[in-house]
Specification:
Length: about 270
Amino acid sequence: MIIKPVETPAITPLELWDAQTELGPLWQLMTDKRFAPMLVTVLQQLHRGELATMSSAGRCLPAAPFEAVFLCGGGALDPAVSACLAGLAQPVFTAPNPLFSGVDGGLQYLASIGLNGWAMDVGQTQIKLGFGHHYQTFERDLAQLPLLLPQHTRTHDEDEDKFSHWVAEALAQRPADSPSSIALALPCEVNSGQKQAAQALGACSYFPAQADFSLLESIAQFAAGGIDTVYLFNDAQIAAVNAANDSRLATYRSVLVLTLGYAVGAAMLCR
């Protein structure tokens, strides 16, 4: 199996999930009624270069002035979020298929390189899988795959094998004659220059420390073959591919892509 991390020069993933707010880290506010107005404040600070995050050690991120916002993920359908984001100075566009925006981005990427394949977007709470106009979701069983935070003790084999088996079970739902290429998005940092290194994949709630690409090889093995090439993305990156193909955004040079789910994912699309 060939693993190809996809480089998209026009797309830059952003770390907003741990933005520092007066109420605590942004991700901890996802179910709080104050989340939507606080999200607006975070975006305004990002635009001005006044946003600090925990992962930046409290330093302000460089200003990221954006001309429009592309909203996707299950949280994009929350009326409270839509109402608050309407107060931004920039226009906000909701993805045509918000929950499957990453899947659509993956399918669009494969089509752009002349391939007909599947797309899988692994979120923190569910997997989204798609081919053509066929979409499926697979919910995360928190009893089998509990949310793991960085302070949890890492048990490499157990954490990664459970994750690999779950993803493989979803892939096994493909018909036997499915195309052998897949666009795969993971909810972690993807370091394309570190294919063989232990830090190839950043930490996430499935494996709370960095991992290498053997994790993906295990998935293919558990899925009983049928996959020859994996085109690998970060989850916000693949949603930004969907934004790049949205004709409504064609006239905007800089677009902030937001994925709202378990936490906030983000990427900047600059043309």
